[in-house]
Amino acid sequence: GTHEGAAWWCNSQLDACTYVNVFGAYFLTLYADLALVLFCFVWCRWFWVNAVLFLTVSCLAIWAHLKTMLTDPGAVPLDAQPLSSDADPSFCPKCDAYKPRTAYHCSKCRRCIARMDHHCPYTNNCVGALNQKHMILFLFYCNIEALYALVLVGYYGSRSHGFYSYEWLERILAIFLALDGLFTLAFTGTMMRRQILSIVTGVGTIDRLKLAKGKPIAGGTPLPLSAVFGDATPLLWWLPIDPDFGDSHDAILGLRNAPPASLKDSAFDPAALTSAATPLLVKRRRHDNGLDPWDHRTEAPPLVQEPRVRAHLAPSCRAVSRLVVSCRRGAAARRGSSTSDARQPGITHLPALRALLTGT
Fold first, then answer.
1. Annotated catalytic residue: which of 92, 120, 126, 142?
2. Which of 117, 121, 281, 289 is the most buried (most CB within 10 A)?
C-alpha cells in the first residue's frame, strides 16, 4: 500500500486507464525482445550479438520500470517537521501534517510527495525525489532500445533490398518492429526531455502547469545530479538502485523526521508531545499506548494552537461559521421560531471550535 508503515510501496488505486497504460508499455518492450530473439536465434537472419545487447538493455528498462512503480517516491511522514530554514511552513489539510514547499498532495497515492514531478499513469506511481532516478533510467533505456531497433531494421533492410528476400512473416515482424521503435522513441523521448528540463531548471511538470496558469511555484532552483542520482560513484548512477543522499537527505526532501521514539514506550507522556504534533498523530499515539484517543484533558496542545496555523485556518473557520448561522436562520424561519432557539445539539461545539481557531 501507500499508507505510512506499509511493508512495501504499491499503489492500489487501479483503474482501466492504468491497466491499459502499464500493459501497453510492457507489450511494446516484450514485442521488440521477441522479434530480436526470432531474427537472431531462430531464423538466424541477424547477428546474435545484437539480441544479447538488446535484451540486456531491455532487462535494465524493465528493472527501472519496476523500481519506479514499487519505490516510495518520497512520501512525507505524518510526524515530519519543517527544516530550521523554513520560516513559513505549510500544512496539508488532507494529510493533517506538515508539507514541504516543493511537495504536492497526490489524490491517487493519497500522500504528500516531496519534490513531486507528476503522477505517472504508466508506472501507477508518483515521480518524486526518491524515484526520479529510476524514472529517468527507464526512459533512457527505452530510448536506447528504440534507437537500436530502428538502426537494426534500417541496416538489415538495406542489405536485403527492403526485406525482399525475407518470408512474409519476417517482413511483417520487421515492419512492426520499426513502428514499435518510432512510437517508443517519440513518446519516451518527449518524457525524457521533460525530466531533463526539470533537473536543469528545477521546475517539474506540475510547476510548469502552474506557471502556465500564472500561479506561483516553490521550485525554480536547478538540481545538482547528486540530488537525483545520489552521492554514490557515477558508475552506479546507471543502475536502477535506490540513490543514497547521505547527509543531504533531509535537505533534498525538505523536511526532518521527528526524534526517534518508540510509540509503545511504557513511559509515554501525552503532555510531552510538542505542539508540532497534529491532532491525528496525537490520537494515534494515545491509541497505541492504550489511552483514550478522545480524552483531551491530558492531551498536548494540537496543531491548531500554533499561531501560524491558526492564521491559515481562521478564514475557513469564519466561512463555516457564516454558513452554519445561515442554515440556523433558514431552519428557524421554516419552523417559525427565533434564531436564538434554533441551536441544534449536533453542532453546539462550533462556537468553541471557532474560538479555538481564531483566538476570539
1. 120
2. 117
